[in-house]
Amino acid sequence: MQSLQGIKKRLEGIGSIKQITSAMELVAATKMRKAQEAALSSRPYSFEALEILANLVNFIESQKKKIDEPLLVKRPVVRTAFLVVTSDKGLAGSFNGALLKTFDDYLSSRGFRDLSEAKEAKFIVVGEKGADYIKKRGGDVVKQFTKFGDALSFSETEELAEFIMAGFVRGEWDEVVSISSNFISALKQTPISLSLLPLDFNKIRKTVLDIIPETGRYSGLRQAIISRRTKEPAEYIIEPSIEEAFRKLIPLLFKMQVFHLILEANAAEHSARRFAMKSASDNAAGLLDELRLVYNRSRQEAITRELNEITSAIAAIK
């Protein structure tokens, strides 16, 4: 049986761990609430902006006009850029593991098994965990972004969106695919893969419907969007021209899409970390209770043994 001193040291160690995990749980809970609110409040704006652009596309098609916008150009895919969004830090449960498994599965489905030999695959990584993982496998990380975990403003993600757009326009990659986590609820986060470039409004519309929660806040938006499509599309009076409007709106839409993607990933990360830290705190509390019982039982046994020895010694003297 372990000595009383050894059990006491274990109690002190586990007590310290519980204090740390409890503090991390409180921090994660605070960040989670802010990130969730940011992600949820940005959804209506994203949905409405998409509907406006979709209506404009329908109008252009009905007028048989052609818009010269580089982000809409589809070309034969030779080089693919993957945007991988992970966390900078660990202690988030299965958050990074599940996302990187989805990443591996998607790469395998596209034929990218050996990253060191896949010269046509480029990687743009948000988060240190993803960058370390890809670099160890020999992948070509062309750009790495960190400290996005608390990003709550549009300007904080503009550099990322502009870097992706610039590479696509210059022809450095022919398509952009993102692997990130979508926030469903505080207990559920889902890794998803999205085609970001070239922009395809039908795909974006489908993505919007997929990420709308089936229950809870904003769940009614799904039916609202579907019902709007059965009506006549809205008509817009655009000045100076629809071409000029598209040149302004298309890059803005992409930046907004990237911003919303980061917000969803942040909400998912902080939710996963809070749940992981709560589980760790609960496990530590349970282990402390068990060790206290073992400590008290061992201490009682030691006291009883000492009393027996004293009683035996007195009896022997008499």
Question: Care to describe what's here?
Answer:
The protein is an alpha/beta fold and 318 residues long. It has a single domain (28-274), classed as ATP synthase, F1 complex, gamma subunit (Pyruvate Kinase, Chain: A, domain 1). Helices cover 60% and strands 12% of the residues. It contains 7 helices and 5 strands. It has helices at residues 4-62, 95-109, 128-136, 158-170, 201-211, 221-229, 242-317, and strands at 80-85, 121-126, 141-145, 175-185, 188-197. Strands 3-2-1-4-5 form a 5-stranded mixed beta sheet, sandwiched between helices. Helix 3 (128-136) links the parallel strand 2 (121-126) and strand 3. Helix 1 packs across helix 5 (201-211).
List the helices and strands and how they pair.
Blueprint lengths: L3 H59 L17 E6 L9 H15 L11 E6 L1 H9 L4 E5 L12 H13 L4 E11 L2 E10 L3 H11 L9 H9 L12 H76 L1
Parallel strand pairs: 1-2, 1-4, 2-3
Antiparallel strand pairs: 4-5
Helix pairs in contact: 1-5, 1-7, 4-7
